Amino acid sequence: MPVRVHTLIDSPCGPLTLVATDGVLSGLYMTDHRHRPPLETFGERDEVPFAAAIDQLAEYFDGRRTDFSELPIHLAGTPFQRRVWEELRSIPHGVTISYGQLADAIGQPSAARAVGLANGKNPISIIVPCHRVIGSTGSLTGYGGGLQRKRQLLDFERGRVQCLDGAFVAEATEQAAQEQLF
Q: For the chain, how are helix, strand and coil distributed in percent, rounded to 5?
């Protein structure tokens, strides 16, 4: 039987729950995450298997990391879901694509809705960057962690906000910069 453990870390997106199955990252959930499994399924609290994930997330939020391709992960889902989630990992930092483009990329151009459902059930947010998928008109559409967090992550990756003292902050305007001087 697989052994699951979890830990909690702070982030600019709020507290994140990291889950490992047999020592490999298998979940990253935000507070009020839409498809978050019950806490009882996460196992005991143990930080040991999460050192690399915690370090890489810190680098990401510090602006020193743009992908997590080196981080071992375990994606549990249907074969279709895993294809979608693996393709998400190829979307470059700061770039967005539509659900239709994602469906094309996995070779199923008529499956945009199914791709959207799989995207919404991604168990490893941020690291498997489902926030980089948007509607065909460029609109923000569903995100398991909430649309505000999706906007913050996209703005962060595009340099519109930065992470200071563990929180996202908008780039300072000249007026705000002047007010900070006094």
A: 35, 20, 45
Average pLDDT over residues 146-173: 81
- How deeply is 11 buried, as exposed, middle or buried, from its count of CB atoms within 10 A (0-12, 13-18, 19+)? buried
Which of 75, 130, 153, 163 is an active site residue?
130
How far apart, in Å, do the first and last CA atoms of the chain sit?
Answer: 60
Q: Could you tell me how many residues make up the chain? A: 182
Kindly report which listed range (19-23, 33-37, 38-42) carries the lowest average pLDDT score.
33-37
CA distance 19 to 74: 10
Residue 81 has pLDDT above 80, yes or no: yes
130 is an active site residue: yes
Q: Are 53 and 88 spatial neighbours (Cβ–Cβ below 8 Å)?
A: no
Strand partners, 25: 20, 73
Write out the E strands in the chain.
Answer: 4-9, 16-21, 24-30, 44-45, 97-98, 133-134, 161-164, 167-170
Task: Tell me the three state secondary structure of residue 92.
Answer: coil
